[in-house]
Protein backbone atom coordinates (compact mmCIF):
# COMPACT_ATOMS: atom_id res chain seq x y z
CA UNK A 1 0.00 0.00 0.00
CA UNK A 2 1.27 3.47 -0.81
CA UNK A 3 2.36 5.58 2.13
CA UNK A 4 -0.38 8.17 1.44
CA UNK A 5 -3.05 5.48 1.51
CA UNK A 6 -1.60 3.97 4.68
CA UNK A 7 -1.76 7.38 6.41
CA UNK A 8 -5.34 7.97 5.24
CA UNK A 9 -6.39 4.48 6.27
CA UNK A 10 -4.85 4.90 9.72
CA UNK A 11 -6.73 8.19 10.11
CA UNK A 12 -9.98 6.40 9.22
CA UNK A 13 -9.19 3.70 11.79
CA UNK A 14 -8.71 6.48 14.36
CA UNK A 15 -12.20 7.80 13.54
CA UNK A 16 -11.18 10.93 11.61
CA UNK A 17 -14.44 12.04 9.95
CA UNK A 18 -12.82 14.75 7.85
CA UNK A 19 -10.51 12.25 6.16
CA UNK A 20 -13.43 9.90 5.64
CA UNK A 21 -15.53 12.68 4.07
CA UNK A 22 -12.62 13.66 1.84
CA UNK A 23 -12.26 10.06 0.62
CA UNK A 24 -16.00 9.81 0.13
CA UNK A 25 -16.21 12.95 -2.01
CA UNK A 26 -13.09 11.99 -3.97
CA UNK A 27 -14.20 8.47 -4.90
CA UNK A 28 -18.01 8.56 -4.78
CA UNK A 29 -18.74 9.93 -8.29
CA UNK A 30 -16.29 7.59 -10.00
CA UNK A 31 -17.56 4.58 -8.06
CA UNK A 32 -21.14 5.40 -9.07
CA UNK A 33 -20.13 5.55 -12.75
CA UNK A 34 -18.21 2.30 -12.33
CA UNK A 35 -21.20 0.57 -10.70
CA UNK A 36 -23.45 1.72 -13.55
CA UNK A 37 -21.37 -0.47 -15.89
CA UNK A 38 -22.76 -3.46 -14.00
CA UNK A 39 -26.12 -2.33 -12.69
CA UNK A 40 -28.11 -0.04 -14.95
CA UNK A 41 -30.07 1.55 -12.14
CA UNK A 42 -28.56 4.71 -10.66
CA UNK A 43 -30.51 4.42 -7.39
CA UNK A 44 -29.21 0.89 -6.84
CA UNK A 45 -25.68 2.04 -7.70
CA UNK A 46 -25.91 4.84 -5.16
CA UNK A 47 -27.12 2.38 -2.53
CA UNK A 48 -24.26 0.01 -3.29
CA UNK A 49 -21.60 2.71 -3.04
CA UNK A 50 -23.10 4.32 0.06
CA UNK A 51 -23.37 0.94 1.76
CA UNK A 52 -19.73 0.27 0.91
CA UNK A 53 -18.62 3.53 2.50
CA UNK A 54 -20.74 2.86 5.56
CA UNK A 55 -19.17 -0.59 5.87
CA UNK A 56 -15.71 0.91 5.34
CA UNK A 57 -16.29 3.45 8.12
CA UNK A 58 -17.73 0.95 10.60
CA UNK A 59 -15.29 -1.91 9.92
CA UNK A 60 -12.08 0.01 9.15
CA UNK A 61 -10.32 -1.38 12.21
CA UNK A 62 -11.00 -4.94 11.03
CA UNK A 63 -10.14 -4.47 7.36
CA UNK A 64 -6.88 -5.69 5.91
CA UNK A 65 -6.30 -3.65 2.75
CA UNK A 66 -3.28 -4.92 0.84
CA UNK A 67 -3.10 -2.55 -2.11
CA UNK A 68 -4.39 0.98 -2.56
CA UNK A 69 -7.62 2.40 -1.17
CA UNK A 70 -8.73 3.10 -4.72
CA UNK A 71 -8.22 -0.55 -5.70
CA UNK A 72 -10.08 -1.66 -2.57
CA UNK A 73 -13.06 0.61 -3.31
CA UNK A 74 -13.35 -0.40 -6.96
CA UNK A 75 -12.97 -4.10 -6.24
CA UNK A 76 -15.53 -3.88 -3.43
CA UNK A 77 -18.03 -2.05 -5.66
CA UNK A 78 -17.52 -4.61 -8.43
CA UNK A 79 -18.11 -7.48 -6.00
CA UNK A 80 -21.18 -5.84 -4.51
CA UNK A 81 -22.61 -5.22 -7.99
CA UNK A 82 -22.03 -8.83 -8.97
CA UNK A 83 -23.64 -9.99 -5.73
CA UNK A 84 -26.62 -7.73 -6.41
CA UNK A 85 -27.00 -9.16 -9.93
CA UNK A 86 -26.66 -12.72 -8.61
CA UNK A 87 -29.34 -12.08 -6.00
CA UNK A 88 -31.57 -10.45 -8.60
CA UNK A 89 -31.14 -13.42 -10.89
CA UNK A 90 -32.09 -15.81 -8.10
CA UNK A 91 -35.15 -13.69 -7.27
CA UNK A 92 -36.18 -13.57 -10.94
CA UNK A 93 -35.63 -17.31 -11.32
CA UNK A 94 -38.02 -17.85 -8.40
CA UNK A 95 -40.56 -15.57 -10.08
CA UNK A 96 -40.34 -17.64 -13.27
CA UNK A 97 -40.84 -20.85 -11.34
CA UNK A 98 -43.70 -19.29 -9.38
CA UNK A 99 -45.46 -18.11 -12.53
CA UNK A 100 -45.06 -21.50 -14.17
CA UNK A 101 -46.32 -23.25 -11.05
CA UNK A 102 -49.33 -20.95 -10.90
CA UNK A 103 -50.16 -21.69 -14.53
CA UNK A 104 -49.92 -25.42 -13.91
CA UNK A 105 -51.86 -25.36 -10.65
CA UNK A 106 -55.31 -26.93 -10.57
CA UNK A 107 -56.30 -25.23 -7.30
CA UNK A 108 -58.91 -22.53 -8.08
CA UNK A 109 -57.99 -20.63 -4.89
CA UNK A 110 -54.34 -20.39 -5.88
CA UNK A 111 -54.62 -17.06 -7.70
CA UNK A 112 -56.03 -15.38 -4.59
CA UNK A 113 -52.72 -16.01 -2.81
CA UNK A 114 -50.38 -14.94 -5.60
CA UNK A 115 -48.51 -11.65 -5.25
CA UNK A 116 -48.56 -11.38 -9.01
CA UNK A 117 -52.31 -11.91 -9.24
CA UNK A 118 -52.95 -8.47 -10.72
CA UNK A 119 -50.46 -9.16 -13.52
CA UNK A 120 -51.95 -12.60 -14.06
CA UNK A 121 -55.46 -11.18 -14.28
CA UNK A 122 -54.36 -8.52 -16.76
CA UNK A 123 -52.61 -11.14 -18.90
CA UNK A 124 -55.72 -13.35 -18.83
CA UNK A 125 -57.83 -10.41 -20.04
CA UNK A 126 -55.64 -10.19 -23.15
CA UNK A 127 -56.42 -13.77 -24.21
CA UNK A 128 -58.87 -14.31 -27.11
CA UNK A 129 -62.42 -14.59 -25.79
CA UNK A 130 -62.95 -18.33 -26.22
CA UNK A 131 -59.48 -19.16 -24.90
CA UNK A 132 -60.01 -16.87 -21.90
CA UNK A 133 -63.39 -18.43 -21.17
CA UNK A 134 -61.99 -21.97 -21.24
CA UNK A 135 -59.01 -20.95 -19.12
CA UNK A 136 -61.22 -19.32 -16.48
CA UNK A 137 -63.56 -22.31 -16.38
CA UNK A 138 -60.59 -24.55 -15.72
CA UNK A 139 -58.50 -22.48 -13.32
CA UNK A 140 -60.92 -20.07 -11.70
CA UNK A 141 -64.00 -22.26 -11.54
CA UNK A 142 -62.14 -25.55 -11.11
CA UNK A 143 -63.96 -27.50 -13.80
CA UNK A 144 -62.38 -30.58 -15.32
CA UNK A 145 -61.48 -30.76 -18.99
CA UNK A 146 -64.36 -33.16 -19.68
CA UNK A 147 -66.86 -30.88 -17.90
CA UNK A 148 -65.67 -27.86 -19.89
CA UNK A 149 -65.92 -29.82 -23.16
CA UNK A 150 -69.49 -30.86 -22.37
CA UNK A 151 -70.48 -27.36 -21.24
CA UNK A 152 -69.05 -25.70 -24.36
CA UNK A 153 -69.97 -28.54 -26.70
CA UNK A 154 -66.44 -29.02 -28.01
CA UNK A 155 -64.05 -31.96 -27.89
CA UNK A 156 -61.77 -32.53 -24.91
CA UNK A 157 -58.80 -32.20 -27.26
CA UNK A 158 -59.98 -28.72 -28.26
CA UNK A 159 -60.17 -27.74 -24.60
CA UNK A 160 -56.71 -29.18 -23.90
CA UNK A 161 -55.22 -27.43 -26.93
CA UNK A 162 -56.79 -24.10 -26.01
CA UNK A 163 -55.59 -24.44 -22.42
CA UNK A 164 -52.04 -25.23 -23.54
CA UNK A 165 -52.04 -22.24 -25.89
CA UNK A 166 -53.41 -20.02 -23.14
CA UNK A 167 -50.67 -21.17 -20.77
CA UNK A 168 -47.99 -20.45 -23.37
CA UNK A 169 -49.37 -16.98 -24.08
CA UNK A 170 -49.62 -16.22 -20.38
CA UNK A 171 -46.08 -17.46 -19.72
CA UNK A 172 -44.74 -15.24 -22.46
CA UNK A 173 -46.77 -12.22 -21.37
CA UNK A 174 -45.95 -12.63 -17.67
CA UNK A 175 -42.26 -13.20 -18.29
CA UNK A 176 -42.16 -10.05 -20.44
CA UNK A 177 -43.84 -8.02 -17.70
CA UNK A 178 -41.96 -9.15 -14.61
CA UNK A 179 -38.49 -7.76 -15.36
CA UNK A 180 -36.83 -11.13 -15.74
CA UNK A 181 -34.13 -9.87 -18.08
CA UNK A 182 -31.19 -11.16 -16.06
CA UNK A 183 -32.56 -14.68 -15.97
CA UNK A 184 -32.71 -14.90 -19.76
Q: What Rg do the Cα atoms give?
A: 26 Å
Let me know the largest β-sheet.
none
Distance between the termini: 41 Å
Helix content: over 70%
The count of strands amounts to 0
Task: List the domain count as a whole number.
Answer: 2
Structural class: mainly alpha
CATH arch. level architecture of the largest domain:
Orthogonal Bundle
Task: Describe this protein's structure.
With 184 residues, this protein is mostly helical. The chain folds into 2 domains: 3-89, RNA polymerase sigma factor, region 2, helix turn helix motif (Rna Polymerase Sigma Factor, Chain: A, Orthogonal Bundle), CATH 1.10.1740; 105-177, Arc Repressor Mutant, subunit A. It is built from 9 helices and no strands. The chain has helices at residues 3-13, 17-36, 42-59, 69-104, 110-113, 117-125, 129-139, 145-152, 156-177. Helix 2 runs antiparallel to helix 3, helix 3 (42-59) packs across helix 4 (69-104) and helix 6 packs across helix 9. The longest helix has 36 residues, at 69-104. The radius of gyration is 26 Å and the shape is rod-shaped. The protein starts with a helix and ends in a 7-residue tail after the last helix. Residues 118-170 form the RNA polymerase sigma factor 70 region 4 type domain. Residues 24-88 form the RNA polymerase sigma-70 region domain. Keywords: Sigma factor, Transcription, Transcription regulation. Belongs to the sigma-70 factor family. ECF subfamily.
Amino acid sequence: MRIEDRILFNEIKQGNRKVFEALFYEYYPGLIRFAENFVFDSAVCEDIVQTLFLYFWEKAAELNIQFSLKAYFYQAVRNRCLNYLRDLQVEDKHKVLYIEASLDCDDPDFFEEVDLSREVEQAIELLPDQMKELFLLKYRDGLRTREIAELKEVSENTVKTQLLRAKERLRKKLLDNTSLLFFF
